[in-house]
């Protein structure tokens, strides 16, 4: 028998060292995130491993699983607690050691293992931990699997049995790097800033980019789990500005920034200007659809409207579907539709054959960007960006909102705009042209300006994004319109950043 996890325990007590603690809100829509020792303890992680092993058996999948961990001071201990639970449930565990998340996804294919459990808090601040899980490569869990896992763990519905085993794969990164770099070298000698924010990708990104033929300027590639400069998150302006400074100082062709677990890539052009990932997606879609007829793409609801309106994509016959934000949702939809690629504004990109295996890998994205530049001799990254129709876009802005309240707030905001549309009301002085409610609400008005409000899937926050094809003023108008609705809800707090 194993005790039912408690939702809260006090650290430095007998109970904390003798009972599992798992806060229910840590089970997110498509992965799991907790504050270590505040919301989950090591026995709680062990319970998670037992629950995951039980779920894998329940799904009828072979109980064999890849594990790895990111570079945080506590991630290895969390991984070993998870492994003890998985082995207790009868799983054969393949441990690849310190890894970026996509290395674990690659190992599922390379080692022919059906399941994955990667210990990472991605780009979350220090103190957070989490697990990205899947039992059907290249997909990761969605809400159905996460709901069932939550029920198994919190109710201690474990099905432990003998037969678990453990295998450590020595020097595994060499296999991953060899797979990424077994391609023709670039014809164009690109000078590239590789920025890693002292996160896990620092151990691999410079090596991969050098192997494909780039001159690499490493930036904060030394592993340091205190993240002394800034959080390794290529959506944060602090990291983007550090990349800008390095690009300008070294006269680089492009700056590439990788998040904490290496599954996302941010881009700064040769003039030092950041290019938000959705615009990078449009550039890549132009490049890919030029060499692949009738290309189909999937993009998330936070992304630019250019995927539909860009005349080059229209001329090349590209088709785009908007879908729910979240790496698991996007991965699944890209796979279901057999799309050439999926692009998410956060920088998760999903390339199917011939470019990738369907999972998100920041290094595959970086290679795709370098190859796009290789196919555009004489044109800079800024040239390719400036060839896009002009729009004014905000970064992702996140006002605080408790996990227990955020979905209720978003439901109320959706109802507000649905009623406004029905009654002919105006947003930012114009009629509503279109509402997309597949994930929160995306409000588009007559001049093509739009605003989005949705709940963050992995933090106690809302997500707000606005864009206008008309002017910077209209972008601000849309933000003020969306924010004025949010301000009617006292549960909504301060933003992490604002335009």
From TrEMBL:
Keyword Transferase tagged: no
Domain Alpha-D-phosphohexomutase C-terminal as annotated: residue spans: 406-483
SUPFAM superfamilies: Phosphoglucomutase, C-terminal domain (SSF55957), Phosphoglucomutase, first 3 domains (SSF53738)
Cofactor: Mg(2+)
Keyword set, alphabetical order: Isomerase, Magnesium, Metal-binding, Phosphoprotein
Pfam families from the UniProt entry: PGM_PMM_I, PGM_PMM_II, PGM_PMM_III, PGM_PMM_IV
Gene3D superfamilies registered for this protein in UniProt: Alpha-D-Glucose-1,6-Bisphosphate, subunit A, domain 3 (3.40.120.10), Alpha-D-phosphohexomutase, C-terminal domain (3.30.310.50)
Domain Alpha-D-phosphohexomutase alpha/beta/alpha: 26-159, 175-272, 278-390
EC number: 5.4.2.2, 5.4.2.8
Protein name from the UniProt record: Phosphomannomutase/phosphoglucomutase
């Amino acid at each position: 028998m194993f005790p039912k996890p408690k939702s809260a325990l006090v650290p430095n007590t007998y109970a904390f060292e003798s009972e599992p603690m798992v806060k229910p809100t840590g089970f997110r829509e498509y992965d799991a995130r907790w504050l270590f020792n505040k919301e989950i303890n090591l026995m709680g992680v062990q319970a998670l491993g037992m629950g995951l092993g039980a779920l894998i058996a329940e799904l009828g999948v072979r109980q064999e699983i890849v594990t790895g961990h990111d570079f945080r001071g506590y991630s290895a201990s969390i991984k070993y607690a998870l492994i003890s639970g998985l082995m207790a449930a009868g799983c054969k565990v393949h441990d690849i050691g310190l890894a970026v998340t996509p290395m674990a996804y690659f190992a599922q294919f390379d080692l022919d293992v059906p399941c994955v459990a990667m210990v990472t808090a991605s780009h979350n601040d220090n103190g957070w931990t989490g697990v990205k899980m899947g039992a059907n490569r290249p997909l990761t869990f969605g809400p159905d699997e996460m709901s069932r896992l939550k029920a198994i763990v919190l109710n201690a519905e474990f099905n432990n049995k003998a037969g678990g085993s453990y295998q450590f794969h020595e020097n595994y990164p060499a296999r991953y790097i060899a797979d990424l770099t077994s391609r023709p070298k670039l014809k164009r000698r690109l000078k590239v800033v590789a920025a890693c924010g002292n996160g896990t990708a620092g151990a691999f990104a410079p090596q991969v980019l050098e192997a494909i033929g780039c001159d690499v300027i490493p930036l904060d590639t030394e592993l340091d789990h205190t993240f002394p400069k800034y959080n390794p998150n290529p959506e944060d302006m602090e990291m983007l500005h550090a990349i800008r400074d390095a690009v300008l100082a070294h006269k680089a062709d492009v700056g590439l920034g990788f998040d904490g677990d290496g599954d996302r890539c941010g881009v700064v052009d040769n003039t030092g200007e950041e290019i938000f990932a959705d615009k990078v997606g449009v550039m890549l879609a132009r490049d890919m659809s030029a060499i692949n007829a009738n290309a189909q793409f999937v993009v998330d609801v936070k992304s630019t409207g250019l995927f539909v309106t860009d005349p080059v994509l229209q001329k090349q016959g590209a088709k785009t579907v908007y879908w729910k934000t979240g790496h698991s949702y996007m991965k699944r939809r890209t796979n279901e539709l057999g799309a050439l690629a999926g692009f998410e504004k956060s920088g998760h990109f999903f390339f199917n054959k011939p470019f990738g295996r369907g999972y998100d890998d920041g290094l595959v994205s970086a290679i795709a960007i370098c190859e796009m530049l290789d196919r555009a001799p004489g044109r800079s990254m800024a040239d390719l960006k400036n060839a896009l129709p002009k729009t004014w876009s905000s970064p992702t802005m996140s006002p605080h909102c408790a996990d227990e309240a955020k979905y209720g707030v978003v439901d109320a905001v959706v109802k507000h705009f649905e009623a406004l549309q029905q009654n002919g009301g105006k947003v930012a002085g114009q009629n509503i042209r279109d509402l997309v409610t597949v994930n929160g609400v995306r409000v588009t008005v007559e001049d093509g300006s739009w605003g989005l409000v949705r709940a963050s899937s992995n933090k106690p926050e809302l997500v707000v994004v606005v864009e206008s094809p008309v002017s910077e003023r209209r972008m601000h108008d849309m933000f003020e319109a969306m924010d004025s609705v949010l301000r009617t809800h006292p549960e909504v707090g301060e933003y992490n950043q604002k335009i």
